[in-house]
Specification:
By secondary structure, the protein is α+β, with helices and mostly antiparallel strands. It folds into two domains: 143 residues, no CATH class; 94 residues. It has a five-stranded antiparallel β-sheet. It has a three-stranded antiparallel β-sheet with strand order 3-4-8, with no helix packed on it. Strands 5-6-7 form a three-stranded antiparallel β-sheet, with helices on one face. It is elongated.
Length: 288
């Protein structure tokens, strides 16, 4: 967004709290490897749809057609920012599939995976204890084959995600046994996340910073697909922002090719001395 908006985003009227969070830049592309993300910033036009589709297919072998078909690429004086994140990870050894059980006070049962007392040692080697204070206050890390760490924590927190993560890091100084012992058990629910967030509070409001003469954000959407089970998981995250730019120069056609009026007046006089309405060729010179 820096490239397009020229640093921090601000509005003429009150700036939403979510913008203040974005401007902190707690998460940037520098925290990702180059092979896991794609970003396109370009003029909104019909051809851009095919460009993005082909780029993502070539880099990730994923067909983006269903998502791209929902986006309007025929918007005058507009830019599109399209970001795409893809991660797939596997556990070296699949965890055991556990019996279905309830989650918290839910009425329905959900699927679980993890480790029991009879599980193999190879599963225990995939788990690192970050800290353990009691059964309601702990954190672990699951190791994968793909250089991805899955950190799971049960802590009482009302802070932001960034502040909560910092709390986990601070507690990582835990000096007791960080190994997953034979008597330790692990129980994790299978996760399937499929959500779309529309940031309507950012849209159709006049922007204060106009590095690229941007008038307002037309649409801002984030889509997240995430799955986790006993074998591993997958993440697909998309961010789509489309803005409207103030036109620096609009082409205007002054063509008197249909009915028009003509007035003649002396420059220093208020009223014209000749007035004509011309709506046919009777008063025109006819070409040979």
């Amino acid at each position: 967004m820096d490239e397009r908006f020229g640093g921090e985003v601000s509005f003429r009227d009150e700036t939403p709290s979510i913008v203040n969070s974005l401007n902190k830049k707690d998460f940037t592309k520098e925290q990702l490897s180059n092979d896991s993300y794609y970003i396109k910033v370009d003029v909104t036009r019909p051809e851009l749809k095919e460009i993005i589709k082909n780029d993502i297919k070539n880099k990730f072998n994923i067909d983006e057609s269903s998502t791209l078909d929902k986006i309007n690429f025929d918007i005058p004086n507009s830019y599109t920012i399209y970001s795409f994140l893809y991660k797939k990870f596997e556990f070296k050894t699949p965890f055991d599939v556990l019996d279905d059980d309830k989650f918290s006070n839910s009425e329905e049962k959900v699927k679980y995976f993890g480790i029991t007392a009879s599980s193999s040692e190879s599963l225990r080697e995939q788990v690192e204890v970050i800290f353990y204070n009691d059964q309601n206050n702990f954190a672990i890390k699951l190791n994968t084959k793909n250089n991805e760490d899955i950190i799971l924590a049960r802590i009482d927190s009302t802070n932001s995600f960034d502040e909560t993560y910092n709390t986990i890091v601070e507690n990582s100084k835990y000096e007791k046994n960080k190994s997953f012992n034979n008597e330790d058990t692990l129980k994790i629910p299978n996760l399937i996340v499929d959500t779309e967030i529309s940031y309507d509070e950012l849209c159709n409001r006049e922007l204060a910073n106009n590095k690229n003469n941007i008038s307002y954000i037309k649409s801002a959407i984030q889509q997240i697909n995430f799955s986790l089970n006993n074998e591993g998981g997958e993440v697909i995250s998309r961010g789509i922002i489309q803005d409207i730019t103030k036109a620096n120069s609009i082409k205007r056609d002054f063509n008197f090719t249909d009915s028009f009026y003509l007035f003649l007046k002396e420059s220093d006089k208020e009223k014209p001395y000749l007035m004509l309405k011309i709506d046919n060729t009777d008063l025109m010179e006819i070409s040979n």
